Amino acid sequence: MNIAVLLFVLSLTVPMRAQLGNEGSIEGIVTDPSGAVVVEVSLKARNTDTSATFTATSDASGLFRFLILPVGTYELLAEHSGFATLVQKNVVVAIGAKINLTLSLRLATGSETVVVKSETPLLGCSEERNSSARVHAKPSEHHRGRTLGCQPAIERS
């Protein structure tokens, strides 16, 4: 009877193991510039092919784990207040891989990073009408043979 129970339990685990065949994991530790661990860091692993996103948080030891990730290439994002956001690109998860990373967060500075996806000029080098004032841009002065750009000029009518 014990053998029958054992076979039954094993038969239940075989389908679960078969589902894990195309997966791997990412784990590691998050530190600050001095090497001390950083707790409660918000982490996201985004599959760059499918855009599937997985989340984790570093524990009291600074450790994080993405235990079951589908095979693919990931972009890892780590965020915590007081630190600059860290983006780790091209983390490749292969079948059965157990990737171990050390993520070192840098202290945040007073500046911000702005990513511009498209640019719309605020003032072109052409004439525009604005109520009773005519706004146009005129070429700025030349400096050593180079034009320094356009500067706005306003003429009242």
- Terminal Cα span: 103 Å
H and E order = HEEEEEEEEEEEE
Give a quick account of the main beta sheet: strands, pairing sense, barrel closure: 4 strands, antiparallel
Which structural category fits the helices and strands?
A: mainly beta
| Strand line-up of the largest beta sheet | 3-2-5-6
Which percent bin holds the helix content? 10-25%
Q: Total number of helical segments?
A: 1
Q: How many runs of DSSP E, i.e. beta strands?
A: 12
What name goes with the CATH superfamily of the largest domain?
Carboxypeptidase-like, regulatory domain
Indicate the proportion of strand residues: over 45%
Return residue spans where pLDDT drops below 50 for at least 5 consecutive residues.
13-19, 111-138, 140-144
CATH fold topology of the largest domain: Immunoglobulin-like
- Structural domain tally: 2
CATH C-level category of the largest domain: Mainly Beta
Multimeric status of the protein: single chain
Rg is 28 Å
Average pLDDT, rounded to a whole number, is: 74
Coarse shape: globular
CATH architecture of the largest domain: Sandwich
